């Protein structure tokens, strides 16, 4: 909570200048937070999914950009254990991650859009002797200013295959362009990255991908981020209501029935969304492999419900505060912009509804 409070104090400047939260990320690294999801067999604490979403929610209450950025790292750190990487490469990477190194995927491309839509990467990988040579252009590469590893999806030349390639930042041929101009989550550093004849050793071809949809429960860091932002908006609105006393009334506006109704509606929505997020996280943690294999629609539903609820909560919070919520001085206008970014994080709402429809039709 103390770190989150400091993040909150820096959030306004980060948003106004669209600068990356270097200090926040440094604090998370120095505290050991960035290594919490490393499996125990590699020296980490292997925190549960439930623990991760609770922690990410708190970080987001301070600064949404910081939470979403570090959330991608936290999920990938845990997820790569399930990807059947070469043991030596996995050990090497986890050793560096234990020391504070940062990793994120580079998958989205201007020509293909979100990788969840199934487009084949235009980025290519060509085998040359004992090396791979990577060429391509990735967009929305969150945390690009501080990444130590890029996990890049690429099409393998002369085949129909697609793979993940691990590219350390020291490699020659990596070029980052500061293209992030979003009005939401302005501090994520989600820039365009170019890989121009980047040569990596053969062992860094870490995973061959297939077309089957993999279950990635660690993506719940996404709804955790947005419900955290909504929680900050709730606090801001309720604090305002308890202290604002126009001379047209006795007491504060928190005594007005219509305002109390909105405060109660926010609380109901927050409780509902949190119970859904927490319960599904716990269900995953307690499930066996067979049970987990059927949880994709449920995990996707959590993201849809929690993210859309967060948007609704911020909207109601702004109705409580009124026109002042649109002031540049109010954090609510930042929460309003930031929380809408969740609509464009995976999985997309329409794909979730299709998953749920398929599940229901198959069951009944």
TrEMBL record:
Pfam families in alphabetical order: Acyl-CoA_dh_2 (PF08028), Acyl-CoA_dh_M (PF02770), Acyl-CoA_dh_N (PF02771)
All residue ranges annotated as the Acyl-CoA dehydrogenase/oxidase N-terminal domain in the record: 5-78
Record-linked InterPro entries: Acyl-CoA_DH_C, Acyl-CoA_Oxase/DH_mid-dom, Acyl-CoA_Oxase/DH_mid-dom_sf, AcylCo_DH-like_C, AcylCoA_DH/ox_N, AcylCoA_DH/ox_N_sf, AcylCoA_DH/oxidase_NM_dom_sf
Region (Disordered), start-end ranges: 105-129
Domain called Acyl-CoA oxidase/dehydrogenase middle: residue spans: 106-198
Keywords: Flavoprotein, Oxidoreductase
Top-level division of the source organism's lineage: Bacteria
Keyword Oxidoreductase: yes
Sequence ranges assigned to domain Acyl-CoA dehydrogenase C-terminal in this UniProt record: 223-342
Molecular functions per Gene Ontology: acyl-CoA dehydrogenase activity; flavin adenine dinucleotide binding
Protein name: Acyl-CoA dehydrogenase
């Amino acid at each position: 909570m103390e770190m989150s409070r400091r993040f909150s104090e820096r959030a306004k400047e980060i948003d106004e200048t669209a600068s990356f939260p270097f200090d926040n990320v440094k604090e998370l690294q120095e505290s050991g937070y960035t290594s919490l999801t490393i499996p125990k067999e590699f020296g980490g604490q292997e925190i549960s999914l439930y623990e991760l979403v609770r922690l990410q929610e708190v970080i987001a209450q301070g600064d949404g950009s910081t939470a979403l950025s570090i959330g991608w790292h936290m999920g990938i750190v845990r997820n790569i254990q399930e990807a059947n990487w070469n043991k030596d490469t996995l050990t090497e990477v986890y050793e560096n991650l234990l020391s504070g190194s940062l990793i994120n995927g580079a998958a989205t491309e201007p020509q293909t859009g979100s990788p969840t839509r199934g487009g084949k990467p235009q980025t290519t990988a060509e085998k040359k002797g004992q090396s791979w040579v990577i060429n391509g252009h990735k967009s929305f590469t969150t945390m690009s200013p501080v990444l130590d590893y890029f996990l890049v999806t690429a099409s393998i030349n002369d085949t129909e295959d697609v793979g993940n390639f691990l590219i350390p930042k020291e490699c020659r041929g990596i070029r980052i362009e500061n293209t992030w101009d979003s009005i939401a989550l302005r501090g994520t550093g989600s820039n365009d990255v170019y890989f121009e004849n980047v040569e990596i050793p053969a062992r860094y071809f870490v995973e061959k991908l297939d077309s089957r949809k993999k279950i990635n429960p660690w993506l719940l860091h996404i709804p955790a981020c947005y419900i955290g932002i909504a929680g900050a908006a709730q606090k801001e609105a309720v604090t305002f209501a308890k202290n604002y006393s126009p001379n047209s009334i006795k007491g504060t506006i928190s005594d007005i029935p219509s305002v109390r109704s909105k405060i109660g509606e926010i609380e109901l929505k927050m409780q509902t969304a949190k119970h859904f997020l927490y319960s599904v996280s716990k269900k995953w943690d307690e499930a066996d492999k067979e049970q987990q294999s059927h949880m994709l629609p449920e995990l996707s539903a959590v993201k849809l419900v929690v993210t859309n609820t967060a948007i609704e909560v911020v909207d109601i919070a702004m109705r409580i505060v009124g026109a002042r919520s649109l002031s540049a001085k109010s954090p609510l206008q930042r929460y309003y912009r930031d929380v809408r970014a969740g609509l464009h994080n995976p999985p997309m709402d329409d794909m979730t509804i299709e998953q749920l429809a398929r599940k229901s039709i198959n069951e009944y």
